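re: ur question from yesterday

yeah so i grabbed the chain u mentioned. its 798 aa long if i counted rite. heres the sequnce exactly as i have it in my notes:
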Amino acid sequence: MAADRTASAPTTLTQATGATRGTVGESTLRPDGTLKVTGEFAYSSDLWHEDMLWGFTLRSPYAHAAIRSIDTAGALAVPGVYAVMTHDDLPAGTHYGLEIHDQPVLAKDRVRFHGEPVAIVAADHPETARRAAARIVVEYEELPLVVDEATATAPDAPLLHPGRRDHHASHVPHPNIVHRQPIRRGDVAAARARADVVVRRDYEVGMQDQAFLGPESGLAVPAEDGGVDLYIATQWLHVDRDQLAPVLGLPADKVRLTLSGVGGAFGAREDLSMQAHACLLALRTGKPVKIVYNRYESFFGHVHRHPAKLTYEHGASRDGTLLYVQCRIVLDGGAYASSSPAVVGNAASLSIGPYVVENVDVEAIALYSNNPPCGAMRGFGAVQACFAYEAQMDAVAAELGLDPVEFRQRNAMSQGATMPTGQLVDSPAPVAELLRRVKALPMPPERAWEAAGGPVDVRALPGGLSNTTHGEAVVRGVGYAVGIKNVGFSEGFDDYSTARIRLEVIGGEPVALVHTAMAEVGQGGVTVHAQIARTELGVDRVTLHPADTRVGSAGSTSASRQTYMTGGAVKHACEAVRAEVLRRGRERFGAAHPAWAEPGRLRLADGKVVTDGGEVIGDLAGILGDGAIDLEREFRHRPTEPFDLRTGQGFGHVQYSFCAHRAVVEVDTELGLVKVVELAAAQDVGKAINPLSVVGQIHGGSTQGLGLAVMEEIVVSRDGARVRNPSFTDYLIPTILDTPAMPVEVLELADDHAPYGLRGVGEAPTLSSTPAVVAAIRAATGLPLRRVPVRPEHLTGT
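ran it thru and got these structure tokens back, copy pasting raw so excuse formatting
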């Protein structure tokens, strides 16, 4: 096990000396960081091509309606329009999807959500394309809506996907249920009979948007070989290609994707948005076609976090031991499946939290509905569950008269514990220690105006920037939470990543070229891969090849997996290159030094071959000469297996990550305004490859969880299932003024199964930050607050 390493955020950030180079374990600045903050970075929306056209999508104004007719004559008559396409114009496949191919490229007989694509237009100017789309006449007939579990499973409920054929269909009790996953362990009824305290409550989580700042955009260029080259902001180049090829009627090798600059993702770029539309228009017109969504379109163009309704019952003995947990989780997947089956698996398997509970009865389902499609978002099913189970832990602790942190620590899992799925936790699980550390951190200073006898700076108060209060009704609260998140793809998915490493001498200096298909969406692979190459190959100069489909798949930049998986692939490929260097060196110089016969004693450092005693016995320039070593390798984590569809038992996840938070808030109880004063975190990362980036990920995830706690929600009308706030005017996200101080404690407890012992970082802080903030608001106000986001009216009762 690696030595424990702790750093506060300021200390960690100070370690960055300004260097853009570094090896594993050093804080390294991003090579694209300066370009991004100065506005010089090229995002996908900046793409340009000579003689290109602009694409635009016509979307449905209804959430559920039959399409009776589509008349495109008016659009085709607009000067500058090159093509108009509907479902009837598709050349090949008509549907796509991540797990279930249930989503039409363009709606045919009916639309199933507000904003569904119905037709696409290509024109010589974006405004021309928009004006032409407005002249397309679509005759709709509205149909009954499915908006919740009651309307989805009613005897006369409209079937949103009648006759669906997929491997999930036989395991669900109703066609409008996408997937169902129970978890059964122990005897809940017997445990309930022994319990001294039973707490049963309902919870609700609103629909959160990923709210990335770079809208969906890309450029499709028809190629001379009949194929198409797509330059795109995405999270998974190869899965995009594999969905596109059947739709375009092309073999996969004629659909070539190159990653363009990505302005954030957080799960929303896992699904296709404008990719198929741009390619179809490019192939139809024979010209490059660019599509850039505006912000309004973006809210309709990607999936969101599943809203959830959760019912939890916890039973405990008087000594503070959890005896059982029973829960039911209902996730609204919206009109199409996207990744709902996997989200259900996560929600169910992680529904109890990082606690030891012998008796468990869980059911998680996802629905089809006419609400906006939902899929991947940072935390992926575990966020919704964490809000509920952490509220329950506070409630049970209160019933027992125990400190909420102590109660959690009494029941906290550690290495060797068994998950409700029967899986052994075989790597460090320092849950009690994480809680101890956040609780031990110094508290932020008390309110300055109280110490001074009057207001000092109203900007420090809830709503203070609007001069709404002078602190008359402001109270402080403190709350704690901890969460558990899986890392990597689960349930038997063949999770692998590929890396190609080329090592050669240029200008007398060894240079490594790293080529992967990893989508850099802000997670920091652009530093991590170079750090690994420098560490393994002992070279200073490392270049990253643009990510594209000319190399094997790197999988999705999601599930906190890229440093583990593609970092592991880079390490594996570098090891193969190093072995080849030593083999060639042995062939050429083996007689000159006996150490060449013992490759296990040799390493590469500063462009030299060095013994474990530090003796230089060769250099890369002499070994490689004018040649190069160019090798590609795949990396896989240990295999997982699907959860049993009756009991939920199985080795479903490769790794778990843990994060704990302490939130300090101040609430104006008269105005219903909340200010998060501090959001402290402690997280085990296994090994911090780039400590600077690790702290940044924890800060980012914590802020996104704060947003869900107090402001972020897509509001959907029940009467028409229409999105009411598709703009950053009405959909609020935390700004720098909402983001509090965030001290961070970083632990490095190695996972022996992972490269360098590392553990995925980016998602875990999103789980526990939300319930910690809400727990602090409860402590300040005494209100139950069982729904997020918490709104002013929830605090004032008006």
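noticed a couple things. Confidence is low (pLDDT under 50) at residues 1-19. also The longest strand covers residues 474-487.
anyway ttyl
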